[in-house]
Amino acid sequence: MTSSDLLAGIPRPFLAPRQVLVGDGAAAEAGTALAAWSVPAGAVGVIADSAVAEFGIAEPLLQGLEAAGYRTHLFALPVGEPTLAAAQDALDFLRSMGPKAVVGIGGGSAMDVAKIAALAATTDKPVADFLGIDPEAEPGLPLVLVPTTSGTGAEVTRISMLADEQGRKVICSHPLLVPLLAVLDPELVVGLPPAVTAATGMDAMAHAVEAFLSRNRSPLSAQASLQAIRLLREWLPRAVARGSDMDARRATLYGAHQAGLALNAGVILGHSLAYTIANRKHLPHGVTCAIALPYCVAYNAGSELPGADDLALAITEGRSDSLDDAAVELRQLAERLGLPTSLADIGIPADEAREMAQECIHRYPRPANPRPFALDALTDLVAAMACGELPGSGLPGLQKNEGVNA
Ligand SMILES: NC(=O)c1ccc[n+]([C@@H]2O[C@H](COP(=O)([O-])OP(=O)(O)OC[C@H]3O[C@@H](n4cnc5c(N)ncnc54)[C@H](O)[C@@H]3O)[C@@H](O)[C@H]2O)c1
Ligand SMILES: [Fe+2]
Description:
It contains 14 helices and nine strands.
């Protein structure tokens, strides 16, 4: 049951793709769908993750586009972080071939490059001119996004994250980055290795939970959060333990997508903590999110938050309406997935706590976090995260230290 608290609130926008193709084999239908949106036959620029291109994961998509009358031109992204330079190369590639549409296929890295390149492609400006919140922009090329990881929800959001020359994350946030078409094809994620499945799945979980806690929550983002949490909570351990389990692959892909929709409300303290961890240890984004998320929930547990019981019940699968218990449950989930759960696990000492708290406040402030950022309280929180201590006591019936194969 959903409490009426979740239906109240001030007016807020909620963005989503114009069409979502969903189901096994959906990628092969993208060409037909694009034509149905009156995108004329001609060249299409496909920005693809290099592993996805190499393993032939993009083949059904490419064949479907060709069958619908499009000539596909593939740009395989360099391995590693999506950089401003790589996005500029992708943009130059698009301009050299004059495409009718742009398709991004891969994880968040490839989709983020495709997004900003498609936006810039109808202008003569460089990618760097599109950084920031709501940069001046006009509609870009029609955009199709096809995730091959179950995590970022980038196929939904108004965000593109890139790395600058110093390796710092820079953002472009604009409503025009939301695509015309998103394609959720579980067959594309079936080969995702367990470690990537675990990390990207916990990134999605962090999006859903933090968006729910955000003061920018809306009735629609709240429902998307709860749906995402239920799907990921139940199915992520199975997707990690047995990648060929199609039910688990479907549930986690659709859960990550719902979490992307929830991101209309944005993220809060958990992602601030995750970035401060990433600044000290180069780890996948989802791993840092998994460590930080229980502490984000614990920090906000005492604040006045309508619907907190709905959130706790979703996370604990109906066993508790307490956010402290939910925080413990999230840490146990990360443990089951084989992810680190404390700063000690990844070699960050407790004496970094004050500096990390300051970094959260100054570099990654979150006005929408329910409990304001306070230096002493955040220092204590990071110190607790260093040794893996949470305030909650845990719930009867939860199986601590249960391995995913157990
Ligand atoms: N735009 C947004 O709203 C948004 C939200 C969150 C994160 N992000 C960004 O997304 C990026 C992370 O994206 P990600 O977590 O999806 O990882 P990723 O795109 O970097 O991919 C992770 C790894 O998985 C491989 N891979 C991808 N699909 C595969 C498949 N089907 N089979 C085998 N290997 C596969 C890739 O080659 C890569 O090595 C970061 O740059 C982050 O900042 C963006
Ligand atoms: Fe994230």
